[in-house]
Write a structure and sequence with these properties.
Two copies of one chain form a homodimer. By secondary structure, the first copy, chain A, is of the alpha/beta class. In chain A, 34% of the residues lie in helices and 27% in strands. The first copy, chain A, contains 13 helices and 18 strands. Chain A binds chain B through residues 16, 19-20, 50, 53-54, 56-59, 61-62, 64-69, 71-73, 75-76, 78-84, 86-87, 93-94, 96, 98-99, 143-145, and chain B through 16, 19-20, 50, 53-54, 56-59, 61-62, 64-69, 71-73, 75-76, 78-84, 86-87, 93-94, 96, 98-99, 143-145.
């Protein structure tokens, strides 16, 4: 007998037929002798409707009331799934965030889970009862309803799995697992059987939107084994787990890309101590998140060119900040380019394997792709390239690192 | 400065435009220096949709989960109205049943309010904050969400008004008050300025569906002054209050009718002790509610005819019960008629005025209307007549008791 958390997203509970399908899926795990807690999102579209109402009700909606309105979506699906389970003979009851409780910070709209009360669930398991927990919601200071931000149901599920010491947290979604790269670009992309938390985090933060980043962080901290699988097909997905669980680790497990990038270059910045701080301090103050930074070697010993990347949505804001500081920073010219993409190779195996970066650069050079900026971490090499080369680069790297399916 | 409860039903909060309209209405009371608690229903149609989901999810929905699903409708509108109020500069916050708390019995789907926690609201009033309370919902034993049954938001509002000692509880609805009779039948029906709790109870139980019966009972017990008024027009409605507040009490304040009636007559029932019990005991056991009862004087001293009325929906069940007991009861024949209507004249003034019944019978006789059954209470005289005479009877009585508008 094992204990499982099963999480179903909005498309999996989009209508009553799918909710009945989910109930049947849960029943199979119960029939197999497992203790099951289910976490549900709102019906697909419901949250958008509720958010639209809030934005109609007020120009700047108070996040506390926004949470009250938006959290109702998960309340509905948790009640309905409990009913659907009972209807097929599976004892079940719904749990709202405030009932367990799922205690969170007071950051309404993007609250962090502080604690998950598991006592009541344990008692329910003893009675053979499936717990259907409303995802995405919790209760904050002064007993007010909080939400965790979009996609927060993944985090609810992982936190719950940690609290009840579940053997696994299954995240049912509309894709059937984590792939070596975007299958829409690379037809030969392979589904990974296993991937480490660290790799998953890099992939998530680079735009592979299978799991919410915070849920992966939480899984890593609490060592919760997470499986990503399809709610429509009946086969194993991808297990996100600790490195130790992966026997034969590939050097590179995936190629990710992010289109949400923009590049700024400052020409002829004074090459003196403190200049970097004079640029990046004010950007941080303006909430502009700087990612990659390259400072060229100074030719004349007095000035240098500085290039960095930021989120594309923040480009205008960043340019305003820097132009307003032109005097203090002292540069000749500012160039910007929103037509860039970051492509990354990711793999915990590269910790112990040299040559990943050079193999990457060679593969790109063979296709005539110019690298504009490079950054590396322990388990990742990223390059910034012109957006038009995205597909070519991803395919070339996928082949170069031996990831193509047979 | 007064303290007010304002309750808005589903049609008053049916869309964002109307919610904004409600917010403006509340703002006026706040601007006039009042402390205001608002009770809201779900958006018109929302509750029906949620109920439909529950009935799709399970053949016999567990009432506890039903309550979880259905209570979400009021959660949405309370949050949205709080946002709309804030948007026009009125400090406001939403309160769910479990937050105040509104403690109820565990009779899910039709729970009774046991207590309303007012402390948090009092603190809010001190801060100049409008409380927006989700109607229809509460929290039962084991911290589970309960609902009060359809129309329960009226009861929420009255219970809240009692708890915070409000000067008045304004029920905003789609009619502009309580009328002397159904204006669809009598063009000269007049809106009443005031009506007593007792009269309102009789009218409500006789089919004038302005206020939920339980809310009137609660108002009477706690002496909460309730005003029924239009949420679309801006003029005073009808005040439901204690008799002492009504200076010039009319003898009769209204004419009500109920089409939900059926009549059963048992011919030649043995006229012996215990026969009534042998009929009405089994009917009560079968949950058939018997209203009027008439037993004719026995002609031969050995048998009698027994006539009684029941709800029309219960006619089939009642006939089955009685036919199954034919041997024990001992009667010659059973007759039934669903084509009957109960017409009543209501007025607390008749306690001190004789002659109301005879004036009623004369008015009906003048129109050639035959009275089948009569029943009276302290403040009401009811007669059962053939359904086809309904309009004629109501109009004749409205005129006979001087209720016609000028």
């Amino acid at each position: 007998m094992a204990r499982l958390v099963m999480k179903f997203g909005g498309t999996s509970v989009a209508d009553m037929e799918r909710i009945a399908h989910v109930a049947a899926r849960v029943k199979r795990e119960v029939a197999a002798g497992n203790q099951v807690a289910v976490v549900v999102s709102a019906m697909a579209g419901a949250t958008n409707q509720l958010v639209a109402y809030c934005n109609q009700a007020a120009k700047l909606p108070d996040r506390r009331e926004y949470d009250v309105v938006v959290a109702s979506g998960e309340q509905v699906t948790s009640g309905l799934l409990a009913l659907a389970l009972q209807d097929i003979g599976v004892p079940a009851r719904s749990w709202m965030g405030w009932q367990l409780p799922v205690t969170t910070s007071g950051a309404h709209g993007s609250a962090r889970i502080l604690d998950v009360g598991a006592e009541a669930l344990e008692a329910g398991f003893e009675r053979g009862e499936v717990a259907v927990v409303a995802g995405f919601q919790g209760v904050g200071p002064e007993e007010r309803i909080t939400t965790l931000g979009r996609g927060g149901s993944d985090t609810s599920a992982v936190a719950l799995a940690a609290a009840i010491h579940a053997e696994r947290c299954d995240i049912f979604t509309d894709v059937d697992g984590v792939y070596t790269t975007d299958p829409r670009i690379v037809a030969k992309a392979r589904k990974l059987d296993r991937v480490t938390y660290e790799e998953m985090l890099e992939m998530a933060s680079l735009g592979a939107k299978v799991l919410q980043t915070r849920s992966v962080e939480l899984a890593m901290v609490h060592n919760v084994r997470v499986q990503v699988l399809s709610s429509f097909e009946d086969r194993p997905g991808t297990l996100v787990c600790d490195e130790g669980e992966i026997v034969e680790q590939e050097v590179v497990s995936g190629i990710a890309y992010s289109k949400d990038e923009a590049k700024i270059t400052l020409i002829r910045v004074a090459d003196k101590p403190g200049v970097a701080a004079s640029i990046f301090g004010p950007l941080a103050d303006a909430n502009v998140n700087v990612d990659m930074i390259v400072q060229n070697v100074s030719e004349d010993g007095r000035s240098t060119d500085m290039t960095f990347t930021i989120g594309r949505a923040e480009l205008e804001r960043a340019l305003q900040v820097i132009n307003s500081l032109k005097e203090q920073i002292g540069f000749a010219q500012i160039l910007s380019d929103a037509n860039v993409v970051k492509v990354s190779v990711i793999g915990v195996g590269m910790r112990s394997h040299a040559g990943v970066a050079s193999r990457m650069f060679r593969a790109l050079a063979e296709k005539g792709i110019n690298i504009q900026v490079i950054s590396t971490s322990e388990i990742k090499v990223s390059v910034l390239i012109a957006a038009e080369y995205t597909e070519l680069a991803v395919r070339a790297l996928h082949t170069a690192f031996g990831l193509d399916a047979d």
